Amino acid sequence: MPKVLISDAMDPRAAQIFRERGLEVDEITGKTKDELIAIIGDYDGLAIRSSTKVTKEVLAAATNLKVVGRAGIGVDNVDIPAASAQGVVVMNTPFGNSITTAEHAIALMFALARDLPEADKSTQAGKWEKNRFMGVEVTGKTLGLIGAGNIGSIVADRALGLKMKVVAYDPFLTPERAVEMGVEKATLDELLAKADFITLHTPLTDSTRNILSAENLAKTKKGVRIINCARGGLIDEAALKAALDSGHVAGAALDVFVTEPAKESPLFGTPGFISTPHLGASTNEAQVNVAIQVAEQMADYLMTGGVTNGLNVPSLSAEDAPKVKPYLALAEKLGSLVGQLAHDNLTKIAVELEGAAAELNSKPITGAVLAGLMRVYSDTVNMVNAPFLAKERGLEVREVRNDREGDYHTLIRVSVQTAQGERSVAGTLFANKEPRLVEIFGIKVEADLDGQMLYVVNEDAPGFIGRLGTTLGEAGVNIGTFHLGRRAAGGEAVLLLSVDQSVKPTLDKVQALPGVKTVKALSF
Ligand SMILES: NC(=O)C1=CN([C@@H]2O[C@H](COP(=O)(O)OP(=O)(O)OC[C@H]3O[C@@H](n4cnc5c(N)ncnc54)[C@H](O)[C@@H]3O)[C@@H](O)[C@H]2O)C=CC1
Ligand SMILES: O=C(O)C(=O)COP(=O)(O)O
């Protein structure tokens, strides 16, 4: 039974769903890196929020891990390239906490506009400082939105409802989408010059790190108020402190910090500065949403192979997963056959889906072909890391769909470019579930690719099969099944035999038989 570790505080519904779906689950939060490394090897799945850091080191110790599920949006605490290289799927829940986070940004905007935390502190201290607190209205003001994705567009919608003008900077925002959202598309400099409030809603990337740098803060309107509910690192914290101290920036509200947990910061205690401890996603509703979603997604993957919201692997719905599963088995066998037969100097590979197969999501099928192919080099390869490994090796991968049905109602053909020219193999599913090879290097031959096999290419000539049978028999090798195909009578013939004992010690004898061109021991 697969085992899941929940390592950050999560709504109890997550554990409940894991158990209902037949998984074992442990909830162990607050572990140090070393404590996590000591236990992670036991688990197939790891469910996290933002506190657990899934580093290369943690992944290296996670020898059984198949999936990391992020109950939330940001995955900057997960080393995705390392997870991919190790074949671990990383998934998040991109929508479950977005309304809640947008509402937090709006809450912080009002807190800044009316200095609510300071007014509260003063009132509860019995001071009744009615004249000290003079706020600003938001109506009619301009909100500068940096990042107009999922959360940014909800913030924009709420701000428009508050009768604000919204100016948005997002390189991926199309003019049409800006019109649909009711916002003005702007350059960053235009936004900085116009905004009375600025709110950030981008991930932390090389292009967004310090997007509010000292230089850009200097381009803002005097008296601007800034909100960051996205990621620490989007604002240069030292420059922000200086701008607050000088009075250029009237207020700033940060939910996120460069270093978290932020137990100390030069910003703390600065007039006009408000902070919350990464609470953007912390509402009952959002936490129930993300806990349910992440548990369902992870359970789907561990129990059925379905992938939803995969960040390093194509999505495959739990409904489609059972349909695709037999194709994955076929694809992996065909990839493996090609890998075992022609693995020298592979430069290009094409995966062609024909008939019913052409209706399916091709990405996982291609991933499985590559996994089969690359397993010749490494036994830790799977459909998650295979595409990355293939890219690393400079293998050019092409996918082709062919809606028409040929001789078979469904077919996968794998063609590779080798030093000897193009080679292709093809397979189908019998009864929609049993993988069957139907063609090898242009020769029709039907075979189950299973267990230990012997592959022989020879000149079609009378008596050959008898001699081969005798040679194997004398070596104590029992033949299970026997599959034969040939280009034309007397031409090149292919033999695929399943065998009960290893044929490796007998390969030289088979190779020495008259008419034999190629001999290989295969295993599936
Ligand atoms: N404080 C909290 O508790 C929470 C924080 N977040 C964070 O909020 C952020 C936004 O989340 P979503 O809206 O769901 O993401 P999203 O991916 O839907 O939107 C991000 C937007 O940023 C834009 N963008 C990327 N590079 C940009 C650049 N250089 N300049 C301007 N825009 C750029 C993208 O085009 C995209 O439209 C993420 O970093 C996420 O981790 C999300 C949930 C809770
Ligand atoms: O979903 C996100 O990106 C968040 O930042 C929320 O973080 P949390 O799950 O509250 O630790």
From TrEMBL:
A Pfam family reported for this protein in Swiss-Prot or TrEMBL: 2-Hacid_dh_C
Q: Which GO terms describe its molecular function?
A: phosphoglycerate dehydrogenase activity
* Species per Swiss-Prot/TrEMBL record: Sphingomonas vulcanisoli
Q: Where is the D-isomer specific 2-hydroxyacid dehydrogenase catalytic domain?
A: 4-310
Family, similarity comment: Belongs to the D-isomer specific 2-hydroxyacid dehydrogenase family.
Ranges for domain D-isomer specific 2-hydroxyacid dehydrogenase NAD-binding: 106-280
Among PANTHER family, the record links this protein to:
FORMATE DEHYDROGENASE 1 (PTHR42938), HYDROXYPYRUVATE REDUCTASE (PTHR42938:SF47)
Report the catalytic activity: (2R)-3-phosphoglycerate + NAD(+) = 3-phosphooxypyruvate + NADH + H(+)
Query: What range(s) does the D-3-phosphoglycerate dehydrogenase ASB domain occupy?
Result: 323-440
Major enzyme class: oxidoreductase
Pathway listed for it? Amino-acid biosynthesis; L-serine biosynthesis; L-serine from 3-phospho-D-glycerate: step 1/3
| Keyword Oxidoreductase attributed | yes
Known EC number: 1.1.1.95
Q: Which UniProt keywords apply?
A: Amino-acid biosynthesis, NAD, Oxidoreductase, Serine biosynthesis
SUPFAM superfamilies reported in the protein's UniProt record: ACT-like, Formate/glycerate dehydrogenase catalytic domain-like, NAD(P)-binding Rossmann-fold domains, Serine metabolism enzymes domain
Q: Return the protein name.
A: D-3-phosphoglycerate dehydrogenase
